[in-house]
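Handout, section 4.2: multi-component inputs.
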Amino acid sequence: MSHIIKKMSRRALVQALIALPMLSLFRGQPAAVGPNEIVEVNGWILRRSDLA
Amino acid sequence: MIFDSYEAYKQAGFKPKACILGSGPAGTTIARKLGAAGIPVVVLEAGSREFSDESQDFYRGKTVGDYYFDLDVARLRFMGGSSNHWAGWCRVLDKQDFEPKAWAPDTGWPISRADIEPYLGEVHDILELPAFRPDVSVSDDIRWVQLIKSPAVRFGEKFADELDQSKNIAVVLNTYATELVGDGKRVTGAKLWSTGDAGTFTADYFITCTGGLENSRLLLWSNQRCNGGVVPNAAALGRYWMEHPTFEGGNAVLANYNEFEVDASSEAFFSPTLAAMERLEILNFGIRLIETPYPNVKRLIADLACTAPDMAEWMSSKLDQNLRCAAQLYVAWEQAPLASNQVELSKTDVDHAGVPRIELHWKKSPLEHRTLLEGLRLFGITLAQKNLGRVRIADWISNGDDYPTDEETAGYHHMGGTRMGTDVLKSVVDANCKVHGMDNLYVGGSSVFCTSGQCNPTTTITALACRLGDHLSKVIAV
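Output:
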């Protein structure tokens, strides 16, 4: 890994670091929380919409 | 014929081929089957026609482990046996109760439900039942099941006249076998007690139907007295004892629904599908939903208001329209068959006849607590998904606290101890209820259950007794 970094220009390295947060865009998105999702709160088995 | 003492019986000169110990649902049913087949049979009943403290005293014992009822009030020792305090709730074990389950060791029977179904017509006549309706699917996980609230047949009362008039059946009251004597192949006699030592009694066949605790006690003591001559393969004797633990599991608020109806007692019953049991690796359970009076509804909605205000507001408006919207949830569940749950003989305490009293070792397992919690979750999820209502699980269950000691605890259902099976190390009787290795000793009643399912056992006990009665009629007639 350190060998690759030594061969990169300083400019390329900075650009790569700036681009890192973009990777999160390619990660799986969390499932949308639907109103009918079942949740357990204080012992109650509810639909999420019940908590609105 | 009914005799009030062994002396009176002896004078009658009756010559039975078979001797049945106990006149409860199993003993009476088998006797009626043999009598109808023309086979002379004697039924020895330890008690008299009525309850007495003196007779009940023979049933005193001790429980080690989880809290359980006093053993002398958990069953009855007079004509008709424990049918005398039976509530009359009827249902046959489910098909899935007979099947082995990979996630629960030592489950599975050597017979299937289909083996007892041919006898259900007779059972309906005996217990005065209407036909069962099929289970109704509420979701992929939950079935609405039926428990018939029958007239609660008291076998001693219902069949007293028939037994008295029978030429083939002799019922001898106030008489019981303190021990069976055997040589490892056959029972050769029974030592009797009838207001004192009454000598030895012989018959070609013996069938012990003394109940889900007493069958184990009698066979353990008999085996101890004759060095294994009564139950030659005794590794499982007294073991795998089971009950139906029963506790209040929570509450529900209910919307208007058409998916199920409550019965005349404002109750409905629910159980899991086999698919849900397999997926969650839990045992069978029964949720008893009881519609609750108005004050409980308000308390429940107040609790809900802290968690889900909009839901509580909607429920309050429903309350104005329809009072039928809250319920208590009681849960009874199948207990895992464990060798460590067992009937033992007391080393220090004996009854008036000198027979060691019972020391019952009984403890609920972690799998059962998971069955209780996941079962309530399954039911709650079904109600929420279908918008039939909402469930609140009791805090002690959600938090994994100890079982309460001020509740119902269990069903007075005593199962196992002489379980049916093919492996002599894990069972006592074979598929025909014959004690392994013995030619003439059979066991009737719920002590032969391999698993308990979730329902009251009397219907299945009676069906198994009809089946055993038919089998013995053929065996003895040869």
